Amino acid sequence: METRHNNEILEIFKKGTELNIGILPNTKTVKYGHNYINDELILYIKSSDEAADLLQKCIDSKKAVHFNKWANNGKFVTGYGNITILEINEEKVDGLNYILKQEAEQNINQDEIKDISIYKIIVEKTYLMKTSAAVTKS
User: Fold this and answer.
1) Rounded to an integer, what distance in angstroms lies between the CA atom of residue 122 and that of residue 25?
2) I need a labelling partner for 48 at 20 to 30 A (CA). Which of 14, 18, 19, 22 fits?
3) Residues 66-105, buried b or exposed e (16+ Cβ, 10 A)?
4) Residue 123 domain flag
5) Residue-wise over 48-61: b if at least 16 C-beta within 10 A, else e?
6) In a domain, 135, yes or no
């Protein structure tokens, strides 16, 4: 069922710290944060080395990146959006702040910010899904 970024979807994004990116079965788990402003959902991704290749391929090919976010109630959000890598330190700090907020942490090491890859996904579409009894999160 296609939905707009309604309250139920936003509640799913508020919980947890991990998001799956890619298309099943080729997904990677990443740390994320989110922001919802002016009817636009934005995801910030702190990339692991494993996920960096996948994210860079999406950027290079100008293809949308797909994501899945699971909830504990048998529901999940799937969708896609355009991805960019944040290059300017101030933008990286802003993105990292959303990620740390999601993780309930507040410490940013300014000396390490240049070595951290932070990606920004501007979400185009989301779909709220329910898992059947035969399908479970692995």
Assistant:
1) 23
2) 14
3) bbbbbbeeebbbbbbbebebbeeeeebebbbebbbebeee
4) yes
5) eeebbebbeebeee
6) no
Candidates 15, 46, 14; CA nearest to 29 is 46
Looking at residue 132, its pLDDT comes to: 65
0.85 cut: is pTM over it? no
Q: How many domains does the chain have?
A: 1
Segment 96-118, tens digit of pLDDT:
999 988 887 767 777 777 778 89
Q: Classify residue 100: in a domain, yes or no.
A: yes
User: Which range of residues forms the domain containing residue 21?
Assistant: 2-130
Whether residue 26 contacts residue 65, with contact meaning beta carbons closer than 8 Å, is answered with no
Tens-digit pLDDT profile for residues 30-43 = 999 999 988 899 99
Q: What is the 3-state secondary structure (H, E, C) of 20-70?
A: EEEECCEEEEEEEEEEEECCEEEEEEECCHHHHHHHHHHHHHCCCEEEEEE
